[in-house]
Amino acid sequence: MGAPKWALVGLSMVLMAGFAGCTPDDQEPVTIGLITKQENNPYWVTMRRVAEDVAKSEGVTLLTATGTSDTDIDSEVNAIEAMVDEGVDGILIAGTDSKGVVPAIEAARAKGITVIAVDTPVDPLSAVDAFYATDNKRAGEMVGQYAAAKAKELGLEPQVAILDLAPGISSGELRREGFLAGFGIADDDPVIVGSTDTSGDRELGKVAMVQLLAQTPGINVVYTVNEPVALGAVEALKDAGVDLGGVVVVSVDGGCEAIKTAVRPGDIDATAQQYPQNMARKGVTAIADEVRGGEKPSGYLDTGVELITGDPAPGVTSRDVAFGIRNCWGG
């Protein structure tokens, strides 16, 4: 039997609680918790590392915890409760279940702890003090518009595969909604030949693409909720001997490695670049400022999104690969 989730979360916090900046004598000490979804996706690793760097420069003690996947709600709830017990001043959280995490958040706020949702909105959004994130619907619209324009340019009769995140995670749902709107189709449009959930995981993305290709070998437009899933889908397409020159693959994330190794050579045709560094940086400083006499964080902060491609589509505004590499994730 493996260790219980509480022990795993506790161990994670003990190991990572050493990221404390040196608080000047004239400043109020601040302790902040950061809860991310997993460590297998470089997106979340980047967010954590930037939060650690900012905490150090701001003289803040940072506690961090992470789950095992994009759907691991139990670890997040345990982490919130552990951080409340540790006496944190604020919590930054990327929720794995937009509704399921709300009771624990509300309990934390009832004890005077400021909570900022990062990346993924909670439901209702009023359950947190503030929300710092990409406009996920806009990100989906961008890649949807690109995919539609590129398919038209290539003379394709679209056969669309959709590789989603998971039910109950608002960021994935908003991206899908945006993609459909940008592509100009509805959920029940017959051009959608397959749709499946992947939990944002590369291997599950590959498995899903294999299954969808078995059902519809002529798939020529692939929407993926993030770049790990896109990389899995591309691997499956290559294994099946599909000519990627006749398939439009779009995604959301804009990570450095994916842009260099997949967008630049054209395996991923376009991606909507997010800026998780901005979420971490703004979140840590906002809570630190509040504790030290500033305003309480509130409302929505759009941390930006840009369409990155090495092969522009007619009529669609985009940035090139060089821009994507220079600015990946807010760097």
UniProtKB/TrEMBL annotation:
One Pfam family of this chain: Peripla_BP_4
SUPFAM superfamilies: Periplasmic binding protein-like I
One GO cellular component term: cell envelope
One of the record's GO molecular function terms: carbohydrate binding
Signal peptide residue numbers: 1-22
Domain Periplasmic binding protein: 32-294
Keywords carried by this UniProt record: Signal
Compartments, record wording: Cell envelope
Main localization of the protein described in the UniProt heading: other
PROSITE patterns: PROKAR_LIPOPROTEIN (PS51257)
Domain of life the protein comes from: Bacteria
Family membership noted in the UniProt record: Belongs to the bacterial solute-binding protein 2 family.
Protein name: Sugar ABC transporter substrate-binding protein
Organism of derivation: Tessaracoccus antarcticus
